[in-house]
Amino acid sequence: MTEISPSGQAKPILDIDNLSVTFTGGSKTVRAVDGVDLKLNRGEVVALLGESGSGKSVTLRSILRLHDEKKTRLTGRIDVGGVDVMKLEGPALYAFRGKTVSMIFQEPMLAMDPVYTVGQQIVEAICKHEPVSKAEARRRAFALFERVRIPSPDRRLDAYPHEMSGGMRQRAMIALALACHPQILLADEPTTALDATVQVQILLLLRELQRELGLSMIFVTHDISVGVEVADRIAVMYAGRIVEAGSVRDVIRTPRHPYTIGLLSTRTAHGGLSGKRLLSIPGSPPDVSNLPPGCTFAPRCAFVQDQCRVTAPPLVALKPSHSVRCHRTDATVGGLAALAAVTQ
Amino acid sequence: MMIATQSRLATSAPDHATPLLEVAGLIKHFPIKSGLFGRPSAVVRAVDDISFTVVEGETLGIVGESGCGKSTTARLLMHLIAADAGTIRLSGKTAGTSELPMKTYRSRVQMVFQDSYASLNPRMTIEDSIAYGPGVHGMAGDEAARRARRLLDRVGLDPKRFAGRYPHELSGGQRQRVNIARALALQPKLLILDEAVSALDKSIEAQVLNLLLDLKDEFGLTYIFISHDLEVVRFMANRVMVMYLGRVAEIGPANALYKASRHPYSTALLGSMLSMDPDHRTERAPLTGDPPNPINPPSGCRFHPRCTFAEPVCSTTVPVLAAAGNDHWAACHMAMLASGHSNAKDTAV
User: Fold this and answer.
1) For range B231-254, the mean pLDDT
2) Nearest C-alpha in B relative to A169
3) Any idea what the Cα angle at residue B288 is, between residues B250 and B303, rounded to 5°?
4) Taking chain A, what is the end-to-end CA distance rounded to the nearest angstrom?
5) pLDDT for B236 beyond 70
């Protein structure tokens, strides 16, 4: 999906080309990600939006090669600043993780080691990647804590993860992820477990850090409003494929894939139409180990035609910055109004 | 003294309609035991004197952040945990007394939980799970099974395909439909939905919300809808109650409260909703820091350490729920007459 990146720009820092991820460990093989193309430019934030099982987190984890190699088959290419991630082995892979590309998770309590203080974990990460003394690493950890605005940073460095509140832990994990000045930050639903008033604080912090440090970011979320708040571009995933991608404005204001339109209609109907029935997407997401032929969204789609059930839709570039994988782009021009019209 | 005032004011709020549920002075404190002899070393004031009413046929939304006591309130209402103090009256009868024994009360008030899997017995087919309640209340087995199948059909699960299945054979959305069917099996008046759609994907959530609206009309139900999702509460609720650290901060009609909240905490909470507009992104977080711990809550107004309008009176005096509009009440010194706060109104609304 080269269209996802505005043309004529410098070489993207991350280039995922035809990535497929197949899990072979269970009784059935499951193709969780099926031919994903995604480019991330320097200093850009892309939100990867999807529901559970859509393959958004699997895609993200593939970039760091976090999947168990014995039970996973990865095909395609992942290129980070000229480095072929698929070919990285041993020390080169360890050096890559955290130093070039780093990641924050939904639940810092599970991502951090409960028996070391947060400070020890940051110092360890710095010392692993760079030839600096522990004292110097500790000074950097202190600066990082100030940067992510943790109050009384010196005392907090000596705290264990369980001694911190949810928002504080998330700030500490951001500090840990930034410890070795990565170029790319991957965020896997970092605000999903947080309360609303804390979520806003963390989103604003991430946006500010991204701008000041010139980070490139992929932000995985199931919440479209979070994507709008942080991202330059949004890529919508469904059943292992990117079905729509474009600038935030394109995707929010002129959505063209029936799935994106459906997601937006369940949301925007709130408030104005309280008490009225929501336009909902019928059925449930398909079992990725047993996908229907043709378009995987066809069984739930209000715009479906015979062709959708037979052939997988090609990628349609509506404009250089907006592309959709759908046979019926002619019918979805009206967006939400078009969906309302066909479901009446 | 202040506590009594808060209770009286809140219960008298919606006096124009029939109250189905009247809650007065509900308190639940959890002692934290530690040390050798397990002596309580501290107390979590999970629910600390709350009073409210639910009008027949309405949906009361309860919102607030973790630790505000919304789920504890739900559990107290179901009598899953015993309250330290307070009364619950259903249709004018006090629950747990001879006029309304707990068993009868529980058949009229039912609950749907967030975790659809944990709330079903994994060793029972879903038909048996739904028929279990009516059986306990004396319904014959075949009749209970018939009712279970009818309800399954009503919540959109074909009984022929689903009745004999076990919970693990269903998706999250399907399991939550089963939980709703089970809650309806005793023909309750009031349904408590505690984060009932929070674990579902957005596309499934919309289906279940639609189902809840249909069932409400069809069976003449009243809902208490608890959620951290302010969008969904706005969509579902007629009235909304905002809780903060075990107390009611504000309660009022959903539209009025969302448009013009009267408690600074409600304003901050609603201000945290994301805009969905890439051209008007949030520039400043309405609050800093995390919600505080309900152990040793702040004195006076519990929100005062985080409140931009805080004045000396806020840390010394507990605010009572004061009229802030039509059927709209806020526990804030700025909404109270002559409270000593410089922004307090000097005339009644």
Assistant:
1) 95
2) B290
3) 35
4) 34
5) yes
Residue A274 has pLDDT above 90, yes or no: no
DSSP code string of B234-301: HHH-SEEEEEETTEEEEEEEHHHHHHS-SSHHHHHHHHTS----TTS---S-SS-SPPPPSBSPPSSS
Measured between beta carbons, the chain A residues lying within 8 angstroms of B287 are 197, 201
Q: Report chain A residues touching chain B, CB-CB < 8 A.
A: 51-52, 165-168, 195-201, 203-204, 222, 224-226, 228-229, 248-249, 252, 262-263, 266-271, 273-275, 277-282, 284-285, 300
Q: Which residue of A has its CA nearest to B282?
A: A229
A52 CA: distance to closest CA in chain B (Å):
7
Q: Are residues B257 and B250 in contact, defined by beta-carbon separation less than 8 angstroms?
A: yes
For residue A225, the distance in angstroms to the closest alpha carbon of chain B comes to 5
Residues of B in contact with A199 (CB under 8 A): 272
Q: Measured between alpha carbons, how far is B329 from B339 in angstroms, rounded to an integer?
A: 15
**Which of B206, B213, B290 lies closest to A198 in CB terms?**
B290
CB contact under 8 A, B274 and A168: no
Strand partners, B330: B250, B322
Of the candidates B202, B235, B286, the beta carbon closest to that of A271 is on B235
Residue of chain A nearest B173, judged by CA positions: A284
| pLDDT tens digit sequence for A119-166 | 999 999 999 999 999 999 999 999 999 999 999 999 999 999 999 988
Please give the distance of CA A325 from its chain centroid, rounded to a whole number.
19
CB contact under 8 Å between A197 and B254, yes or no, is: no
Count how many residues are written for chain B.
349
Mean pLDDT in chain A?
91
Q: What is the pLDDT of residues B85-102, one digit of tens each?
A: 999 999 999 999 999 999
Structure token pair of residue A264: 């937006």
CB contact under 8 A, B275 and A229: yes
* CA gyration radius, chain B: 21
Asked if A259 contacts A335 with a C-beta cutoff of 8 angstroms, the reply is no
Q: Minimal CA–CA distance to B155: which of B142, B173, B169?
A: B173
Kindly give the interhelix angle for B126-136 and B141-154, rounded to the nearest 10 degrees. Answer: 130
Tokens 């958004």 locate to A56
Tokens of A63: 């970039």
User: Distance from A151 to chain B by nearest Cα, in Å?
Assistant: 9
Cα(B347)–Cα(A69) distance, rounded to whole angstroms? 72
Is there a contact between A222 and B201 if contact means CB atoms under 8 Å apart?
yes
Using alpha carbons only, give the angle A272, A277, A280 rounded to the nearest 5 degrees.
105
Task: Judge whether residue A272 has pLDDT over 50.
Answer: no
Q: Which site among A266, A301, A321, A343 would you substitute to test the B interface, given the most B Cβ atoms closer than 10 Å to its Cβ?
A: A266
Residues B18-32, mean pLDDT to the nearest whole number = 93
Render pLDDT for B287-345 as a digit per residue (tens, 0 to 9).
Answer: 988 888 888 889 999 999 999 999 999 999 999 999 999 999 999 999 988 888 988 86
N-term to C-term CA, chain B: 24
| Nearest alpha carbon to residue B197 among B233, B168, B162 | B233
How many angstroms separate the Cα of B245 from the Cα of each of B64, B214, B294, B299, B312?
9, 34, 6, 12, 20
Cβ contacts of B170 on chain A, cutoff 8 Å: none
Nearest-CA distance B91 → chain A (Å): 25
